[in-house]
Write a structure and sequence with these properties.
Blueprint (H helix, E strand, L loop, with lengths): L1 H6 L13 E5 L2 E5 L7 E6 L6 H19 L2 E7 L3 H14 L14 E3 L4 H5 L14 E6 L5 E7 L7 H17 L13 E3 L5 H9 L5 E5 L2 E4 L3 H8 L3
Parallel strand pairs: 3-4, 4-5
Antiparallel strand pairs: 1-2, 3-6, 6-7, 8-10, 9-10
Length: 238
Amino acid sequence: MEKYEEQASAMPRIGEPAPEFKAVTTQGDINFPSDYKGSWVILFSHPADFTPVCTSEFMTFATMEEQFNRANCKLVGLSVDGLYSHIAWLRTIKEKIEYKGMKDVEVKFPLIEDITMNVAKKYGMMMPGESDTKAVRAVFVIDPEGIIRTVLYYPLSLGRNFDELYRIVIALQAADEFKIATPADWQPGDEVIVPTAGSCGVAKERMESNEEDLKCYDWFFCTRKLDKEKVLNKIIKK
C-alpha cells in the first residue's frame, strides 16, 4: 500500500490548468503548455517504445496529424523512455513497419523523453496497479488557454480509437463556438442539444414557442439543427 501511494500521483482534473513542465523531445525542447497557447493540444502517453500496440497508435496519429492540425490541434506524445530510444523507434517505424496500408510513416510531432517520470507523475500516468515502470495510455485534451477539457485513461493492452479522439476535439470546439452541448455519438451535421432554460416555466414557454429548428422532447431536453458546413467552416482550416 505504501509503495502504491508513493508512486501514484493525483490526476489533473477537467477544468484545471494543465500542469506545467519543460522537457526534451524528438523535436527539440518544449515549455508546456505555454508553447502551445492559442492551439488545442492532445498530450498522450504510451507505455514503451518498440512495442506493437504503441507502434500501431503512433502510425495512426502520424497519419492523422494534418487532419488534427487543420482543426487547430497539436499532438504531443510521451513515454518514460529516453530520447535515443525514441529516435531509433521512430526510425524503425518509418523504415520497416507497414500496417493497415500505412507505410513509410514519419512521426513529426514531438515525443517527450521522460526517463525521470517527472511528467508522467504530474499527469497521473503512472498507475502501479497496471505497471510500476510504464505509463498507461493517457490522453489529455487541452484548450488554447491551457485548460484541461477531456481526460481519458486506457490500460496497457488496449489501443485507442483515434476517430473518437478527433471527434472529441471537434465537439469541444463546436460546444464552445455555438454554446451548445452534443448528444451521444454526435458527429458534425447531427442535431445538438440546447442548454436547459433557467427554470421549468421558462423552459415550458420555449417548448411552446415557434423557434425555428427547435425540437423539445420535454422541458429539460431540447435539440436543434446545426448544419455540418457551419460547424466545419468555423473549426477546420482550409
